[in-house]
Structure formats: structure tokens, C-alpha cells
């Protein structure tokens, strides 16, 4: 895979701290994402992984620490700001509008307008261009078992809806795609499709941060695994260097890891 | 480190492989064939929300033309139906916008009457130019909408309660400002004929259309365009459909809601102008039933009260269905109370249909 560990990291978090009153949700956490890799983030409930992810996707502003995108420090005050810099997030609860069609959903909030006076004065949508680009992206990701791009999203299965959400992130995410439990709500077959889709997105050059509780899924698709414990990174392993039970042991604190096992 | 090739140019063949791996290459398309005719009908109605009211309208027209004969189908009578539904149609446009966002506006009628009183008094009592009086009336409509929208987006009141309150407030303001007095038609005709202009008619082949009816049709086309061909329209649907998802997609749903209520207020003020044209005078007691009639038109027109689903032209059809039933039953010599009875049945059937249709693809 083409993860390029000798290159500059795409996204880097250094010493992130977030406190809620007396509770420290993130305690000097580090995270590094290299080009072309799938980095899984695992951790027990309450380990602070979702807070860390929120900091990276702009949903939360950290108290301390810095976030580097392509080596440059960045600050997000909202998810929109993160998005504008090319960091897309796929949310667990399928953030799609059921009554709208696939093309509308892909471009929701970022619609294309017709060129010229039709677009500038009459604000007319360029439906044709949006449908074509949606079609192209869905085909590219192998999602065109969905017959019709103007089909309402509610007529799709859970996995296909997740596919629409992933396609949206791949369409607009120019740097990083963050996926929060993308298979949590899906059955076995559907999970498989989504996992393949995740790899497909990675193979197209977009690095992915994957948050998941599902160890077999993590070990199947991840290039590296970031294990979060007590508000910070306990270890970064690879599916080759450690077994699933070792990963769980690190997650729960039953096993200590020295920094030698740090991947890359 | 796991290893695989970079695949910079995506081989097309891979997609088949992925579908095969998933073991479900064809299961997506399959379920369509197993539908019973009833299920297919349900899906059809789901996809085309205007279909059901259109079918009802066509059957009603056929039914009444058999029942009542040529009198019903005469162009003059049909244009009369259109005149009778014009106000409901205009206010229905405002109501549709709000119901699409999963809201409801009980104050539309009160906004309309208040705006008409303001227009009338500005022109007659304060001697302003008629066009200025109209503009001030529109401003009052926009302000009323802004108040509703602020209560709902800023203070998070449920639309039903917020507009129930503002309905009473606007109606009381209207009685206070008008001093409960009617401005007579003759007075308006002498001093500000522009206010009555929408009541004037043009003839097409024996049909007599008012400018108000034409304005209503233009309004439907305009709002249809805005809802279907602009980003704002998509955001209105998305906000009504699933506000949380819309927010995550980056839509500022509060701003969309606010814009919808303000626009609805302006549309109600346009309705006020149509109202003056229709009845000639300005009366603080006019348009008393418009609130509920507008909701009736929207619901019969196939808009879901749960938001995000429906078409603006459904409301026009819905208003016409009500107009055709009232007119047809009246021509057939049926007592007025049975007109009300029929409209009531239509509402219940329409909402029942909506429930059934939405269940179809859950």
C-alpha cells in the first residue's frame, strides 16, 4: 500500500489537550496520518477517541496543542472550516436526507450553479453537471449497483446510504476522510461492501482515519492502528506486528508497549 | 506494513470484483419485481406526490360534469372556481413553504388581514400613494414572518404554539389598528384604485380571469422554481426532511427556517392585496377561515405534515379540489353543510394516504 511513511504526514496532532471542567478528555494526545494509509483509531469507551476525532474534524476546539495539515498549523472553529481545508467526516448516524435523491445528497450544502447569468442572477442549479459528477464518482467507487442517480436515498439499503455518505466525502475531501463507525449499523454483507469501499477510497489516494469498535474490521482494512487509552495514544501498531488480543490488551491497559513498536 | 499496489488509474474491472466479493451484485435491483400492484401504486404515489390529488381532481371534474352537466364545465364557471380559490392558493403557497420545513403556520390568515388593513389605512386614512401603501403592507407581512421565525429559531418554540400565539396577537393588532372599521369599496376606488386592481378581469374564450388569479399562478411558478432549481429550495427540503442531517451537511438550518417564515409573511401580504381585489373593501373581519383552508389545500395537495415531502403544485391542485367540490355540490343544489362535510372527509383521506404512502418505503 502505498502508504508513504517517509513523506510528510498529511495530518498531525501534537499534544492535544481538552478539558471539561475537572475531567481531562484528551491528555496530550498525538496522532499522525501519512499519505495513502488507513489509520484505525481504537479505544475503550471513554478513552477520549471521539473527542480527539472531533478536534480533528473541527467539531471541538482543543485547549492546548496543535494540528498540522500538510505540515502547516491550522485551527478549526467549526466542521465547515475543516471541510473547506479538505477534511471530510462521515458520521455514524448516516447524515443523509432520505427524501432527497443521491445527486442532491452528494452536493447538499455545496450545490453547483449554472454558469453565466442563469447561475449568478437566477441562482439556477446545474442539475445536469451535479448528476454527471455524482454518477462518475459512484461508478468510480463501484457503487453503481444503485441503478439511478435520481433515486431517493430512502429507497436505498443502509449500506448503500453509507455508500452515498462515503462518496460525498470522497467527492469533496481533498486531504483526509474521517469515518466514525461506518459499519456499526450494518449487517454482515453490507459491512463487507462498505469495507471494500473504504479500501477503494484509500487506493484512490485519500488517507482515511477510521474509528471502529469492530476488531476484525479494523484488522482487515487498517494499515496502522492507533490505540487510544486514558486520553492519549497508548501505542501505534500494525495488523502484522500485533494480534487482535494484544490490541485489546493494550487498549485495556493489560499490556504495556514501549515506543519501539511504533510503526513507521 | 501491509502492501498493495497503488493503482493510480482505477481499473474498471475492479468494480465487478467488489460486487462479487460482496456476494450481492444483483440483490439491489431484485426486490422491485416482487411488488404487488398495490405496492407499486404506493411507490408511484410516493415518487409523485402530486399524482393522488390530480387523480382526485380529474375524477371530481368528470363526476360533477356528469352530475351537473354543462353548467359545471362552462368556461365561466371554471374561471369562477379559479377566482374562488385564488386567496386560498396564495396563502397556500406560504403554508406549503412552512409545512415543507415540518412546521405549521396558524397565523397566515391574521397576517393577511393585518397587512390588508395596513394597506387600506395607509392609502385612505394617511393619504399615501397606493404603491407605497402596498409596499408598507408587504413590510408588515415580512415583519410578522420575522417575528414567527425568530420565536421558532431563536426561542425554539414549537411552530404550532408560536403561531397560535402570534395569530391572536396579529388579529388583535388588526382590530386595534383598524378600529374594527371597514374601509368601503367606493372610497378605495376613488382614492387608491391600484389596491383593487387584482380584482379586475380579463376574458379568454368566455372565461373571466382576474389579475389576482394570474398573479397566484405566477407565484406558484416562481416558488416552484425557487424550491426545485435553487440551492435554497434544496435546503428547505433537507431542513424539513432531517434537520440533523442537514446541519451535518453544512446547512444553516436556522437561517433557512427564518427565510421561509419571512418569505411566507411576504406571500401573505401579497394575499392581502389579492383579498382587497376580491372583496373590494378592506375589512378586519375578512378571511377568517383562510388559516385552516390553507392547511386543507396543502394537505389535500399531498404535502406531508412531517416535512420534506411534497410539491408546491400539489397545493394548487389541493385548492382546486376543494374549490371544485364546493362549486359542484353547490350547483347540484346540495346544502352547504354537506360541502363542509365533504371537505372534512377529503382532509382525513389525504392525511391517511400520506401515512400509508410514507409507510411504503420505510
TrEMBL record, chain A:
Claim: Ion transport is one of the keywords in the record: no
PROSITE patterns, per the entry: ABC_TRANSPORTER_2
Domain of life: Bacteria
Keywords of this entry: ATP-binding, Hydrolase, Nucleotide-binding
Enzyme Commission identifier(s): 3.6.3.17
Domain ABC transporter residue range list: 11-255
Keyword Nucleotide-binding belongs to the record: yes
Name of the molecule in the record: Ribose import ATP-binding protein RbsA
Source organism (scientific name): Marinomonas gallaica
Molecular function GO terms recorded: ATP binding; ATP hydrolysis activity
Lineage of the species this protein comes from: Bacteria, Pseudomonadati, Pseudomonadota, Gammaproteobacteria, Oceanospirillales
Amino acid at each position: 500500500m502505498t502508504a508513504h511513511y517517509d513523506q510528510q504526514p498529511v495530518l498531525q496532532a501534537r499534544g492535544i489537550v481538552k478539558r471539561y471542567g475537572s475531567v481531562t478528555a484528551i491528555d496530550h494526545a498525538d496522532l499522525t496520518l501519512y499519505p495513502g494509509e488507513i489509520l484505525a483509531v481504537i479505544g475503550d469507551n471513554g478513552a477520549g477517541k471521539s473527542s480527539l476525532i472531533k478536534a480533528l474534524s473541527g467539531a471541538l476546539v482543543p485547549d492546548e496543542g496543535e494540528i498540522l495539515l500538510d505540515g502547516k498549523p491550522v485551527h478549526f472553529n467549526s466542521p465547515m472550516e475543516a471541510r473547506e481545508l479538505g477534511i471530510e467526516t462521515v458520521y455514524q448516524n448516516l447524515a443523509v436526507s432520505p427524501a432527497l435523491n443521491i445527486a442532491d445528497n452528494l452536493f447538499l450544502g455545496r450545490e453547483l450553479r449554472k454558469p453565466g447569468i442563469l447561475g449568478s442572477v437566477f441562482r439556477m442549479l446545474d442539475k445536469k453537471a451535479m448528476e454527471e459528477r455524482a454518477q462518475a464518482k459512484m461508478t468510480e467507487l463501484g457503487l453503481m449497483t444503485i441503478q439511478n442517480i435520481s433515486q431517493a436515498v430512502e429507497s436505498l439499503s443502509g449500506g448503500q446510504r453509507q455508500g452515498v455518505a462515503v462518496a460525498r466525502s470522497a467527492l469533496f475531501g481533498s486531504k483526509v476522510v474521517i469515518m466514525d463507525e461506518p459499519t456499526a449499523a450494518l449487517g454482515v454483507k453490507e459491512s463487507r461492501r462498505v469495507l471494500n469501499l473504504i479500501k477503494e477510497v484509500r487506493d484512490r489516494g485519500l488517507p482515511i482515519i477510521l474509528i471502529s469498535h469492530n476488531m476484525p474490521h479494523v484488522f482487515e482494512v487498517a494499515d496502522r492502528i492507533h490505540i487510544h487509552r486514558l486520553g492519549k495514544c497508548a501505542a501505534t501498531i500494525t495488523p502484522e506486528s500485533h494480534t487482535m488480543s494484544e490490541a485489546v490488551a493494550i487498549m485495556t491497559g493489560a499490556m504495556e508497549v514501549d515506543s519501539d513498536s511504533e510503526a513507521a | 506494513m501491509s502492501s498493495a499496489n497503488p493503482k493510480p488509474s482505477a481499473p474498471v474491472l475492479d468494480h465487478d470484483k467488489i460486487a462479487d466479493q460482496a456476494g450481492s451484485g444483483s440483490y439491489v435491483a431484485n426486490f422491485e419485481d416482487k411488488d404487488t400492484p398495490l405496492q407499486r401504486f404506493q411507490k408511484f404515489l410516493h415518487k409523485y406526490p402530486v399524482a393522488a390529488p390530480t387523480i382526485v381532481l380529474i375524477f371530481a371534474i368528470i363526476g360533477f360534469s356528469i352530475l351537473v352537466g354543462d353548467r359545471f364545465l362552462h368556461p365561466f364557471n371554471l374561471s369562477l372556481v379559479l377566482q374562488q380559490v385564488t386567496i386560498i392558493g396564495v396563502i397556500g403557497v406560504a403554508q406549503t413553504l412552512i409545512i415543507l420545513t415540518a412546521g405549521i403556520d396558524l397565523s397566515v390568515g391574521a397576517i393577511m388581514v393585518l397587512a390588508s388593513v395596513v394597506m387600506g389605512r395607509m392609502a385612505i386614512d394617511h393619504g399615501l400613494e397606493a404603491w407605497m401603501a402596498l409596499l408598507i403592507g408587504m413590510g408588515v407581512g415580512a415583519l410578522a414572518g420575522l417575528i414567527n421565525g425568530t420565536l421558532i429559531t431563536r426561542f425554539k418554540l414549537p411552530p404550532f404554539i408560536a403561531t397560535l400565539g402570534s395569530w391572536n396577537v396579529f388579529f388583535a393588532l388588526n382590530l386595534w389598528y383598524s378600529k374594527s372599521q371597514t374601509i368601503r369599496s367606493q372610497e378605495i376606488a376613488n382614492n387608491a384604485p391600484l389596491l383593487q386592481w387584482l380584482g379586475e378581469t380579463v376574458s379568454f374564450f368566455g372565461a373571466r380571469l382576474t389579475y389576482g388569479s394570474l398573479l397566484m399562478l405566477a407565484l406558484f411558478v416562481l416558488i416552484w422554481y425557487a424550491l426545485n432549481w435553487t440551492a435554497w429550495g434544496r435546503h428547505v427540503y433537507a431542513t424539513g426532511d432531517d434537520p440533523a442531517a442537514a446541519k451535518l451537511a453544512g446547512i444553516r438550518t436556522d437561517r433557512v427556517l427564518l427565510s421561509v417564515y419571512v418569505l411566507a409573511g411576504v406571500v401573505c401580504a401579497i394575499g392581502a392585496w389579492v383579498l382587497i381585489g376580491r372583496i373590494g373593501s378592506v375589512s378586519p373581519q375578512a378571511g377568517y377561515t383562510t388559516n385552516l383552508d390553507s392547511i386543507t389545500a396543502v394537505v389535500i395537495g399531498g404535502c406531508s405534515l412531517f416535512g420534506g415531502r411534497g410539491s408546491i403544485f400539489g397545493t394548487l391542485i389541493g385548492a382546486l379540489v376543494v374549490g371544485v367540490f364546493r362549486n359542484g355540490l353547490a350547483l347540484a343544489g346540495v346544502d352547504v353543510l354537506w360541502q363542509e362535510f365533504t371537505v372534512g372527509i377529503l382532509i382525513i383521506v389525504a392525511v391517511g394516504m400520506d401515512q400509508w404512502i410514507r409507510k411504503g418505503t420505510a
